[in-house]
Every structure is written in C-alpha cells, then in structure tokens.
Write a structure and sequence with these properties.
mainly beta; four-stranded antiparallel beta sheet; 1 helix; globular
Length: 83
C-alpha cells in the first residue's frame, strides 16, 4: 500500500503571504515554501526533500512546529568556531 499525503498552509504578514506545502508520494516527500508580496507577485520558492525522521513523524500524524523554519529566506546561518 502506498502512502500519499498533501498539505497546504497559508500565513499572511504585512510584508506578504507565505505558502507552505508538503507532498509525499510513494515514500518520498518534499516541502515547499513560496512567498508572495502584498500585490500577489511571487518573490521566491524554496524546495527541500523531507528526511526520514520528518517522513515518519508525518506518517504518524505528529506535530512538528519547526518543519519550515529552515525554509525562510534570510535566515541566519550559524557555524561552529574551530578551536
């Protein structure tokens, strides 16, 4: 039996609208974030593959508040200092 899942979220902010979506088909999945400005013009789209822990959590219907946290444009990247 194949597992299929699709979900969309839309968040409105004063700067524009974020659309987050998750697609899973046959054990492989992607997460997509798209930002639109206030006029409705698409600014950017970012796509990543879901890892195995994210896939298993979605299949078991667990809530993951940080699923799309790495998808926003302009996120600070942290590096470890080599000592």
């Amino acid at each position: 039996m194949t597992f299929k899942f699709h979900s969309n979220e839309i968040h409105s902010t004063p700067k524009g609208t974020f659309q987050n979506s998750v697609n899973i088909n046959n054990g492989k999945g992607t997460k997509v974030t798209t930002m639109y400005n206030s006029a409705g013009k698409k600014l950017y789209t970012k796509t990543k593959k879901l890892n195995t822990t994210e896939l298993s959590n979605i299949k078991s219907r667990k809530f993951m508040p940080t699923l799309f946290s790495s998808m926003r444009k302009g996120q600070r990247k942290t590096r470890r200092a080599n000592h």
